[in-house]
Amino acid sequence: MKRAAAYARYSSHNQQEISIEAQLTRIREYAKKQGYSIVEVYEDKAISGFENNHPGFEKMIEDASESSN
After folding, report:
1. What are the backbone dihedrals phi and psi of residue 68, each rounded to the nearest 5 degrees, phi first?
2. Distance from C-alpha of 36 to C-alpha of 48, rounded to nearest angstrom
3. d(CA 59, CA 64)
4. pTM of the entire structure?
5. CATH class of 2-68
6. Long-range CB contacts for residues 27-36, cutoff 8 Å, separation at least 24
7. Which of 9, 16, 28, 68 is deepest in the core (most CB within 10 A)?
8. Per residue, what are the HEC states of 9-49?
9. Residues in Cβ contact with 29 at an 8 Å cutoff, skipping those fewer than 6 apart
């Protein structure tokens, strides 16, 4: 089985954390159908897409860079 990471986010306090759970549910369903195993989940909560600070996304990129070396 192929390994993959999942990333989910919502952008404002007007949205709810449940939106991340819904995103992850769909990501996991898609991954399963495509033969992927989700080995890590990254998320950013209530951070606007206009912001440059997305710790979950940055950690995902850092981890991917480390695993490709």
Report:
1. -90, -10
2. 29
3. 8
4. 0.79
5. alpha beta
6. 31/4, 31/6, 34/2, 35/1, 35/2, 36/1, 36/2, 36/3, 36/4
7. 9
8. ECCCCCCCCHHHHHHHHHHHHHHHHHCEEEEEEEEECCCCC
9. none
Identity at 59, one-letter amino acid code = K
CA distances to 20, 22, 29, 31 from 26, in Å: 10, 6, 5, 8
| Interval 4-60: pLDDT, tens | 999 998 876 666 667 889 999 999 999 999 999 999 999 988 766 666 788 999 999
Entry field: residues in the chain: 69
